[in-house]
Amino acid sequence: MKCDVCGNKYSDEFDFCPFCGAFPIKFCPKCFKEIDDGGEVCSDCGTELLPFESFKKYYDLKENAVEYLNYCDFDNSIECLEKILDDWPDSEDVIFLLAENHCFLGDYDDALRQYERLAEINPEYKGLHSRMAKICIKNEEIEKAKEYLQKEHKAHPFESEHYIYSMHICFLEDDFEKANRILDRLFAIGPNEDDLLMFKFNNDLNLKHVEYNQELADINERVKKYLEKNFNYSF
């Protein structure tokens, strides 16, 4: 192989360049960082490092998958992601994207299998248990959804997504007092703007097309005022 630093060629039997002592440059597919410390995993995130040639293949396939996803071409996106997983079966971000594609297609059983696969690799992956809870809510498995949301809260107490799904459960159980307490906590930590907008949008649809509920309308009014005050929206 050829040294990335001095340019000399040397045998693959060496872990480093015998001429200048440099380690081969590798890449972290999660952090997208060059690493030349001689290690096998990223010192920041623990992800297995790739040589440049492998990284290029990984990067191109992932870019294509994301582009297909942006154009709602879920089948081709899934094909690209599965090709990556053939070579790197423990790639956390890729498994998560694969599960998201299945969700968009309405294949919730396949999505849940991919989320569970990811949970075996990294049970604290951000957003993982919230997405699993979302599927359980859709399947009316409320107690299981609550368990997943508790796991998400324990791992990421300052992320807003699991608070929003917890409020959805409160709505299903007609517990608007608890929903307001959860909303207080959400406002206290500073919610994600997109999550809050989607929450308001879904509530708007329910109030208009499903069933008008004054308590839900009051909560939605609180969300509206928060968005207007903190993100300069005008509804």
What topology does this entry show?
Layout: E1 26-28, E2 33-35, E3 50-51, H1 52-70, H2 74-87, H3 92-105, H4 108-121, H5 128-138, H6 142-155, H7 161-172, H8 176-189, H9 193-210, H10 214-231
Helix pairs in contact: 1-2, 2-3, 3-4, 4-5, 5-6, 5-7, 6-7, 7-8, 8-10, 9-10
Q: How would you describe this structure to a colleague?
A:
The chain is 63% helix and 3% strand. The protein is built from ten helices and three strands; from the N terminus they run E-E-E-H-H-H-H-H-H-H-H-H-H. It is elongated. The relative contact order is 0.05.
Strand content: under 5%
Q: What can be said about the biggest beta sheet? A: 3 strands, antiparallel
By secondary-structure content and strand pairing, the structural class works out as: mainly alpha
Per DSSP, the total helix count is 10
What form results from the Cα inertia axes?
elongated
- What is the overall pLDDT average? 89
Element pattern in H and E? EEEHHHHHHHHHH
Largest sheet strand order: 2-1-3
- What is the helix fraction of residues, given as a range? 55-70%
The Cα radius of gyration reads 23 Å
Q: Are there runs of 5+ residues with pLDDT below 50, and where?
A: none
The total strand number stands at 3
Care to give the gist of this entry?
The chain is built from ten helices and three strands; from the N terminus they run βββαααααααααα. With 235 residues, the chain is mostly helical.
Keywords:
235 residues, mainly alpha, three-stranded antiparallel sheet, 10 helices, elongated
